[in-house]
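Chapter summary example.
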Amino acid sequence: MTQTAPASADAETHPRRFTHREIMVTMSGLVIAMLLAMLDNMIVAPALPTIVGDLGGLNHLAWVTTGYILASTAATPIWGKLGDLLGRRITFVSSIAIFLLGSALCGMSQNMGELIGFRALQGLGAGGLMVGVMAVLADIVPPRDRGKYQGVMMAVMPVAMIGGPLAGGFITDHLNWRWAFYVNLPLGIVALLVCWFVLAKLPRRSAGQVRIDWTGAALLTVWITTLVLITSWGGTEYDWASPMIIGLAVVTVVAFAAFVLVERRVAEPIMPLSVFNDRNFNLAGALSLVVGFAMFGGVTLLPQFQQYVQGSSATNSGLLLMPMMIASMVLSLAGGAVISKSGRYRALPIAGSVLITVGLALFATMDTGTSRSMTGIYMVVLGAGMGCMMQTTMLIAQNSAPLKDIGAATGAATFLRNMGGSLGVSVLGALYTSTLTDSFTSADGAAGAGAANAGGAVAQMTPEALRNLPEAVQHAFAQAVSDGVGTAFAWGAGVAVIGIVLALFIRHVPLRGFGSAAGADKAPADVTAAEHAQ
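The structure predicted for these 534 residues follows.
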């Protein structure tokens, strides 16, 4: 039992109305924190091929990203619930501090094991960054008015999307990949200071006594970890019928069942199961999981194709991601404006899921002859789909939960998206690595002899090292990368089709405002049947 401060009844049923000026001041801290989280992903992606080659671990490529996403996924609902119990300020600032510690340690890594472990620590903090930003925004702006403030939040995206890849590529080409992590530190210190002061305006919690669900948190971490290990190791490190995989499957099922039982009985569950009583919340969460699987898993592999097949430098591969990022930003801004003006949102997840599926299917057709301009067109399609989905699914989830559980609901929705991303990176990364290795080592003729001789160095292959090998080997490796990326994207597109089906079942529920005590804490499941009309 921990002495702490739960949300007061008044804060739950009578949320304070913030003025426009107060909202903008508070959002300044959120923007910096979001920039911190977005820049990390954007800067590290172009550096990954060099990092993996330098530390020697192609077989562990997926885990550089998976370790980060896995830790972030497990921590997200915990951060969300702790925010409800302890207050947003202390939990948000703590998550920034953990993120910075992980960043510093990642930069000092000497091998792949250390890097993966420190990326996991970094992910623990990152889980609190994103859920904290969305939960604080939900605290100060009602869903009906949130669209007009999304433009301010999205203003950070051009900086991260354009500046991040450029910075990551420049650091990799001209400095050292370690600075891809160290660069977080000065920005993070600014974020710490700004958030500490501006978040003091948030409602304070009254003194009291609550139970923190540490058992539920532990069980949640166990079944998430074992599930991702199954998808990562099955068919690669271990046979699907091996005792290891079967044992992990048993642990996953048992831990998940125990987690559900615990969450049903504890006073303050880490993930309140009541939020899953709402149909729209379930659909939005499932859609986030499916899209996260397809999107995160696929996008992680794009720099591999650009650097190994199209011959781009790390700087240029980051720059070449701009069509996707700009399309995502424009559609996200446009979608927010439409929702704010009309209050309608149902068409966006449908259009977004279709565009993501089409974009991934187009990427699956890439080969060694695909031009950069054609790749850019494919990115625009995928980016447009991402923009339609990014804010809309979270808005639907938050609108489907009572205000007293808004942090836990935000954490649960973010958890599902990250869980999909973790599984996507793991599964699609394993497919990519397996296909690449098989294709490269089975090359025949003159290329085959060179490939066989170089086969032992596949795990340590970098774009620079590849350019120093015979032309036949370069062609064989480029073809193998193309085969691996194509296979991964094809599976991603297949999974994304499920998202289209889920989106079609989402129904329009009017976006609520911060109304009376009676209405403010009411979940949309309690509104009238007329409000559920399409």
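To summarize the output: The chain is about 75% helix and 0% strand.
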